[in-house]
C-alpha cells in the first residue's frame, strides 16, 4: 500500500474512533508513524486530506457499478438480485486495507454529513445514484411487463416507486438498527412487494 492511501485509511480510522473529524496532525503522525513533513508531502493541509477521505469512502463508495449485477432468470429473480446487490453495496462496509478491517458505511456517512463537511457534493452524488437506480429498475420492470411476469394494470412508475421506497426504508432501518439481520428483513419486504406487483 502506498503512503498516501495509508494516511487516508489511518485518518479515517481515527475519525471513526473519536466520533469527530476534529483530528490533529500529531494524532495522524502517531497513527501513521510518519513525520509532519511526510504527511504534508502528500496533502497540502487537513482539508485536502479530508477531501481524499470523502472521495474514497463516500463519493466513490456511493456510486454503484451496475455492470457487476448479475441478471439471470425470471423478472422476480433479476429484480430481487439487483436490489439485494445494491443493498449489500451500502451495508457491508468498506475495507480499510491497512488495518484489514471493514468499516460501517453508516458510521462514515453519519459522521461526515453530520458535520456538514462537503454536504453539497455528497447530496449531489446521492441524488445521481438515486436517479441511476430508478432508471435501472425501470428497465427491469418494463422487461418484466413485456414477459407477462409483472402486472400491466399498475404503471411502471408506480411499481418502481414502491420498490425504491421499500429499498430506502430498509437502508434507513439499517442506519438505526445496524445489528439486525438485513438480509432477512429484505427478503420479507421484497416478498410482500412482489406479491403486490406480480402478474396474475
Task: Describe the structure using short key phrases.
3% strand; 200 residues; 9 helices; mainly alpha
Compact summary:
This protein has helices at residues 3-18, 25-32, 36-42, 46-62, 75-91, 105-114, 119-146, 156-176, 182-197, and strands spanning 94-96, 101-103. With 200 residues, it is an all-alpha fold.
Walkthrough of the structure:
The chain is an all-alpha fold and 200 residues long. It is 70% helix and 3% strand. It has nine helices and two strands; from the N terminus they run αααααββαααα. It has helices spanning 3-18, 25-32, 36-42, 46-62, 75-91, 105-114, 119-146, 156-176, 182-197, and strands spanning 94-96, 101-103. Strands 1-2 form a two-stranded antiparallel sheet. A hairpin with a 4-residue loop joins β1 (94-96) and β2. α7 packs across α8 (156-176) and α8 (156-176) packs antiparallel against α9 (182-197). The chain starts with a helix and ends with a helix. The mean pLDDT is 85.
Give the SSE map.
Elements: H1 3-18, H2 25-32, H3 36-42, H4 46-62, H5 75-91, E1 94-96, E2 101-103, H6 105-114, H7 119-146, H8 156-176, H9 182-197
Helix pairs in contact: 1-2, 1-4, 4-7, 5-7, 5-8, 7-8, 8-9
Strand order of the largest sheet: 1-2
Q: What is the arithmetic mean of pLDDT?
A: 85
Shape verdict: elongated
Work out the helicity level: over 70%
SSE string = HHHHHEEHHHH
What is the CA-based Rg, rounded?
20 Å
